[in-house]
Design goal:
Shape: globular
GO molecular function, one term: peroxiredoxin activity
CATH class of the largest domain: Mainly Alpha
CATH topology of the largest domain: AhpD-like
Order of helices and strands: HHHHHHHHHHHH
Largest sheet: none
Protein name: Carboxymuconolactone decarboxylase
InterPro entries: 4CMD/NDH-1_regulator, AhpD-like, CMD-like
Number of domains: 3
Helix content: over 70%
Distance between the termini: 49 Å
Pfam families: CMD
Length: 264
């Protein structure tokens, strides 16, 4: 028997959030949350539930929304969609693209929800994984060379920025691309999903363009998945900012297709 939109939303809410949906979802906000966000957005097939979680976590962490952040961190961990190692790596990646102050709060929430989940299960949290050794070169020159190579590969362009200032040298080449993007805790697709969401909510025109382009050009995110990312982003950070992201996705899709056609 075909289910109603409300029934589908309630079922999807329980599956995504790993708790029972709120009772009496009759006001406009609750109805929109159940009938649209969960019934129509989370249930769409092109982007997996796990992938949608990375976009959502970036949005709620950036929005300074403590309750939604707590709920989505808890749900991602409890469902098993994201491991604690992946969640902590998500915080680090988020810190680079959204700022350390917001990431500090995100990190606190992750610890709180992880400990709460372990307590619910009657378990002690396992010891934290060792941070060292680093996966990248420790020699400064080799590290910068690696950062330059990583920058070119990840951004799908033939050049890297100069080393002549602290931002690009010590920041972008040494840490962001010399280490962070290369860490093993997350895959390239997950990092791209987080990054696109982060640059989108900050109205960063060049980073939005470059990261959407690179995600599509690399094939890490398909054209269809990128369109779904925009919808998920709209649900959790608003249609106004998502409108520009959607515009850029259309432009960069045409760019990638044109380059593919030109190359034969």
């Amino acid at each position: 028997m075909e289910t109603t939109r409300r029934e589908r939303g309630l079922r999807q809410y329980a599956e995504v959030m790993t708790v029972e949906p709120p009772e009496g979802a009759n006001d406009a906000f609750a109805s929109g949350l159940i009938d649209f966000v969960f019934a129509e957005v989370w249930s769409r097939p092109t982007l997996s539930r796990r992938d949608r979680r990375f976009v959502t976590l970036a949005c709620v962490a950036a929005a300074d929304a403590i309750a939604p952040l707590e709920q989505h961190v808890y749900a991602a961990l409890r469902s098993g969609d994201i491991t604690i190692t992946e969640m902590r790596e998500t915080v680090l990646h988020f810190a680079v693209y959204a700022g350390w102050p917001k990431a500090s709060r995100f990190n606190i929430v992750v610890d709180q929800q992880w400990f709460a989940l372990m307590a619910e299960r009657g378990q002690q949290p396992p010891p934290a994984e060792e941070l060292l050794p680093l996966v990248t070169e420790s020699d400064p020159e080799q590290r910068l060379l690696g950062g330059e190579s990583s920058f070119r590969d990840i951004n799908c362009i033939p050049f890297a920025p100069p080393r002549d200032n602290p931002y690009t040298g010590a920041g972008i080449l040494n840490f962001v691309f010399g280490e962070m993007w290369l860490r093993p805790g997350l895959g390239m697709k997950e990092r791209r999903l987080i990054t696109v969401a982060c640059v989108a909510f900050q109205d960063a025109e060049i980073p939005i363009m470059s990261h959407v382009y690179a995600a599509l050009k690399s094939g890490d995110v398909s054209f269809e998945e990128m369109d779904e990312l925009a919808l998920q982003f709209a649900a959790y950070y608003g249609c106004a900012k998502a409108d520009y992201l959607h515009q850029v996705i259309g432009e960069q899709t045409q760019r990638v297709l044109a380059e593919s056609e030109a190359s034969g």
